[in-house]
Write a structure and sequence with these properties.
Blueprint (H helix, E strand, L loop, with lengths): L5 E3 H8 L3 H9 L7 E2 L5 E4 L2 H13 L4 H9 L2 H39 L7 E5 L2 E5 L8 H15 L9 E6 H6 L8 E5 L8 E3 L2 E9 L6 H13 L4 E11 L10 E8 L3
Antiparallel strand pairs: 1-3, 2-3, 4-9, 5-7, 5-8, 6-7, 6-10, 9-11, 10-11
Helix pairs in contact: 4-5
Length: about 270
Amino acid sequence: MKKKNSLRIAELAELVDINKRTLHYYDEIGLFSPEFKGENDYRYYTLKQVFDLSLILSLKELNMPLAEIKKVLSGDLYDFKLSLQNRLNDVDRKLEELERIRHTIDRKLHYISIAERPHMEVELISCTADHLLLSHPMENRSPTDWIMDAIAFVHDKDLHFLANNEYGTLIDVDKKLENPFAEQYDYFYIKAASSESATHTKPAGSYLRIVFQGPEEELHQPYQKLIDFSRQHTLPLDGYFYERALHDTVHDNQTNLITEIQVRVKNV
């Protein structure tokens, strides 16, 4: 028989808006048990137990594991403080990772805004300095070695997968001026976390930029157009061509690959 001021399991579950099976499980693991059991093993809870359950649910809302909640409930203030500090550390780590994800999404959206600009049109733009981490020189490396080196380099320097990094390649201006079809890159790069960790600084200044959609085999076309433009307008080029994928795609869909190429102009 139900006692006065007691709640059956269904009533308690409805009151705090949880599933009855959750209360059964809490009872099984000894976290939260009914005050008494009646005929047919019916579970009955007192009104005072509602506050105990609310405490458990509040800690669960903080992503505290049930085993830790059980320890907190049976422990002292120090245990409670330690558990909350652990949760705070977890939250800080998650916030840091979410900030990294947000930064990656913002950068990809910025890339898309560039990719939506007219293709195969040369622009003169102003760039701030950029701090980069360079790979070992890529001279005389096969395409397979190049890809393996790039993946290993990213895994060694950063937590993201390759496609979630700000990455690209450098090729010496003189090499391309001599032969726009030259495909031997000098370095692979990713964005450095700070100027202190950088191994190369892309100088601030005026740059020629071109956006190209098409497979890698046709990349000589935008390079040739950049070179022709610089010669027609007497704009001497300096340093490296900086090449990066604005829109990566799978190998079987290379026609949708969108690449941006930048090159610094001397004294403009």
